[in-house]
Amino acid sequence: MTPVLERHEIEAFLAVAEELHFRRATERLGLAQGRVSQIVGRLERRLGVPLFTRTSRKVILTPAGQQLYDGLAPAHQQIQEAVGKALAVGKGVTGTLRVGFSSAWASDAVLRTAESFRRTHPGCLVEIQEVPLCDTFGPLRAGELDLQLTEFPMEEPDLVAGPVIFSEPRALMVPADHPFARQESVCQEDLAHAPLIAVTGDSPAYWTDYIWPRKTPQGRPIPQGPAFRYWMEVPSLVASGQGVSIASLRAARYYARPSLTYVPLRDAPPLDYGLMWRCDGYTARVRKFGETLCRITPGHAAEDHDPA
């Protein structure tokens, strides 16, 4: 008689098959440490075949495990979508959700979330647009956006600061021939020795000063270089030697040029990227999208190489 798989066994197996990492699968499902390994182990004993090959460095599917995954994954997705459709109708997750982002890496997270969100809430249209750094809270406040993933801090009385989704180390974007480019890292006091290219516009001073400070921690003034309104202006301004600018260290992967170098800013606090929405705009759509984003965004827990 063919064994009947319980729901928790199916979810645990699929999570490990997709993550190929027991700890990440456990975190993804929100279970206690070691729980997924126990569930999969019992399932293998009950089926009488190994589903995974485990070593100290990696986890891979066995041929039987691959066959089981190929059969279960599409069916499980269909079930999830059917449940999502029913819940969307019952809970009102329909209409249009407008989501903003301020950086390429935030865009990646939003796009991944939108893809998952559309599968479980097909009655809700998700529109995505970039938030200008020169007016980082303007589109949200004006009702042009319902939700956004942008840099903190946020201290606006009519807006709500949601959870931090990820944090990024800071770097200093400098011309490739700048003296700073030859250093392994720089400190905040070094900012007193180069014009800083910073944003201008309608964003509040506390926000712009937190990212592009006007003084060092010791109170030394930081020379001000040309101002920009949109981020895509910054690499060209820096590459042409008109100054340096603060950036996420991850920006080096998105805006690499031979004429630019990204030097870690070793003593500066990280840049936190979080969700925010209007005080009167916490709809079912906003709540469900935020929950989906928190659930699928990698990096909430430290990565490691222990597959068990």
Automatic annotation (TrEMBL):
<protein>
    <submittedName>
        <fullName>LysR family transcriptional regulator</fullName>
    </submittedName>
</protein>
<dbReference type="Pfam" id="PF03466">
    <property type="entry name" value="LysR_substrate"/>
</dbReference>
<dbReference type="GO" id="GO:0032993">
    <property type="term" value="C:protein-DNA complex"/>
</dbReference>
<feature type="domain" description="HTH lysR-type">
    <location>
        <begin position="10"/>
        <end position="62"/>
    </location>
</feature>
<dbReference type="InterPro" id="IPR005119">
    <property type="entry name" value="LysR_subst-bd"/>
</dbReference>
<dbReference type="GO" id="GO:0003700">
    <property type="term" value="F:DNA-binding transcription factor activity"/>
</dbReference>
<dbReference type="InterPro" id="IPR036388">
    <property type="entry name" value="WH-like_DNA-bd_sf"/>
</dbReference>
<keyword id="KW-0805">Transcription regulation</keyword>
<dbReference type="Pfam" id="PF00126">
    <property type="entry name" value="HTH_1"/>
</dbReference>
<dbReference type="InterPro" id="IPR000847">
    <property type="entry name" value="LysR_HTH_N"/>
</dbReference>
<keyword id="KW-0804">Transcription</keyword>
<keyword id="KW-0238">DNA-binding</keyword>
<dbReference type="InterPro" id="IPR036390">
    <property type="entry name" value="WH_DNA-bd_sf"/>
</dbReference>
<dbReference type="GO" id="GO:0003677">
    <property type="term" value="F:DNA binding"/>
</dbReference>
<comment type="similarity">
    <text>Belongs to the LysR transcriptional regulatory family.</text>
</comment>
